[in-house]
Amino acid sequence: MENPLDTGLRDFIGYNLRRASNAVMSDAARVLEPLGLRVTTFSALSVICDTPDVTQSHLAATLNMERSNTVLIIDALEQAGLIGRHRMESDRRSYALRATLKGIQTRKEAVAALASHEDRLFAQLDAAERAQLVLLLRRIEIPE
Amino acid sequence: MENPLDTGLRDFIGYNLRRASNAVMSDAARVLEPLGLRVTTFSALSVICDTPDVTQSHLAATLNMERSNTVLIIDALEQAGLIGRHRMESDRRSYALRATLKGIQTRKEAVAALASHEDRLFAQLDAAERAQLVLLLRRIEIPE
DNA sequence: TAAAGTAGTTATGGATCATAGCAATAAGCG
DNA sequence: CGCTTATTGCTATGATCCATAACTACTTTA
To answer: To 10 degrees, the CA torsion angle through B106, B111, B115, B118?
Structure first.
């Protein structure tokens, strides 16, 4: 009992992209939830772990979000004890964001959880195909 | 001046999927706006054009959305004169949705606009690579 | 030193999405 | 037939997400 009412839409790459992205994101959210993370907070935590003393503006630019929207995300990570805001001497406007030990540990657990989540969702694709998919995705023109 | 602060995230297919999907969707929205369509209303219109007398429930199932959320979308399409709700004699609970001539024409223009939008965004990929991308995306396990 | 720019923040509104519950109608079953 | 259950479309509502504007503190530029 297939349901190919969307055959006309399936020709658009964007339609398939959105479907896949929605499915993967909602499953990722489900997997991260027990760790107290959402997709966006995980992304921020991950960048902060890999880039000690990054600023909120720099983080926002990296993750393609508005500076204003980083505030609540950073608040959540800070209140969970996963990162800290540290004043910079060189520029007292910015905060230097640093992950705590707990933050690094939580990030590690999240990465493991997400890895098995992706193994499940992309079970139909072998390693070469997954790599191919990532390469294709990264070659898409991002406007601005 | 690259900005590879997200190197740890780039390994996740989901991260690349979301980035690509967001970029493509916002550009698609921009392209559809002059036609008075949003991405979701275009998707619904497209299915209705290809499936005369489809019901709202069937449409919702096809597009992976809740029945309740189709109502406003169908309202918008109907008020724009692109589709009509028709009572079914066989089942007086459901509406049979049918595109009007204007709806069919608008859908055609939207498809053309989206085709050139995809040509622009996926300029880095040749036809074979685009087909490959679609095939990979469609092989992803969609839970439920 | 005055003007312009930047970092973080607050407030706010729009768009999207999921849930619960309703009335009308249909289907299943005694 | 009558009663229960299920389904369709709909309303209302709340959560989340995302973008914009405006504010302060601070820095840079002229």
So the answer is: 100
